[in-house]
TrEMBL record:
This is 4-diphosphocytidyl-2-C-methyl-D-erythritol kinase. It comes from the Bacteria. InterPro entries: GHMP_kinase_C_dom, GHMP_kinase_C_sf, GHMP_kinase_N_dom, IspE, Ribosomal_Su5_D2-typ_SF, Ribsml_uS5_D2-typ_fold_subgr. Keywords: ATP-binding, Isoprene biosynthesis, Kinase, Nucleotide-binding, Transferase. Residues 67-127 form the GHMP kinase N-terminal domain. It catalyses: 4-CDP-2-C-methyl-D-erythritol + ATP = 4-CDP-2-C-methyl-D-erythritol 2-phosphate + ADP + H(+). Its EC number is 2.7.1.148. The gene is ispE. One of its GO terms (biological process) is terpenoid biosynthetic process. GO terms for molecular function: 4-(cytidine 5'-diphospho)-2-C-methyl-D-erythritol kinase activity; ATP binding. The active site is at K10, D130. ATP binds at P91, A92, A93, A94, G95, I96, G97, G98, G99, S100, S101. Pfam families: GHMP_kinases_C, GHMP_kinases_N. Residues 204-265 form the GHMP kinase C-terminal domain.
Amino acid sequence: MTVETFAPAKINLTLHVTGQRADGYHLLDSLVVFADCGDRLTLAPADDLTLTVTGPRAEGVPTDGRNLVLKAAALFGPGRGAAITLDKHLPAAAGIGGGSSDAAAALRGLAQLWDVALPEPQAVLSLGADVPVCLAPRSLRMRGVGEEITEGPRLPAMGLVLVNPGVEVPTPAVFKALTRKDNPAMPHPPGWASAATMAHWLRTQRNDLEAPARALAPVIGTVIGAIAATPGCLLARMSGSGATCFGIYDSRAEAETAATTLRAENPGWWVAAAEPFTLKPALA
Ligand SMILES: C[C@@](CO)(OP(=O)(O)O)[C@H](O)COP(=O)(O)OP(=O)(O)OC[C@H]1O[C@@H](n2ccc(N)nc2=O)[C@H](O)[C@@H]1O
Ligand SMILES: Nc1ncnc2c1ncn2[C@@H]1O[C@H](COP(=O)(O)OP(=O)(O)O)[C@@H](O)[C@H]1O
């Protein structure tokens, strides 16, 4: 039996940095959603554990033990085989959890292939602060350093655009450049009847990593301006530690139109139109 899993792009609609632990990791308060664009994993039964990376964004992605997919597989212990193909569509080191979502999808898929339980939460967190939130993609609130996951609000219909200008901004460097670490937490997200009311609420919230990321990579400001200038854009903001930014629209059709414009005007940028993605447990 071959198992196929989807690793959707993660979007931090908000990202509040509320403190810093003694070990240097930051305390976060983030509304996380997922988009229906992402990487695809195929996991086939095999004697040995192997990884092949394919797809339009395969270049530069490690194929050895540094790949988070193989690190995820290692959590199940030695002596298990699978031939894994990772079809890469998301840019790496881009603030949309490409590696983390791959790791989470590998955990889901391998647990199914080998008919075993998922590793313990602490082991999952050891793969990366973003991996727990990627385990069951849907609207979620993420707190702690990434390990405290609670349900987020039900999302209204909306269109999304993701844009990456091709600049890698390393997550540690962005956190390091953040001057104020004790920012206010996010109030309880109320739930919204429309994309417009959601965007209105989101505008009262923040991504605290946006300013330090823009200082390191000023092109992020250009990207946000370009998204905000597209017709129907309700909100333009950076996701995670950047450099990917997102736009929110009333409908997928509006997002598709905006994506076409952004691609035409900026041929070097990675641009995707999407809608929110929710994992249906039976189809993990
Ligand atoms: C910032 C966020 C927000 O969702 O997203 P991305 O920009 O990575 O997508 C995540 O917290 C990133 O998660 P992830 O990329 O898995 O982080 P890790 O590999 O565990 O850590 C990378 C580095 O980021 C910093 N880090 C990460 C998480 C956190 N809560 N505090 C931190 O200070 C640390 O410097 C750490 O060495
Ligand atoms: N499956 C993977 N896909 C992408 N990057 C990976 C993967 N496994 C390991 N990496 C490494 O992880 C780093 C961070 O990738 P990613 O999780 O996409 O970034 P971010 O944390 O900004 O969302 C990259 O520099 C890359 O070399």
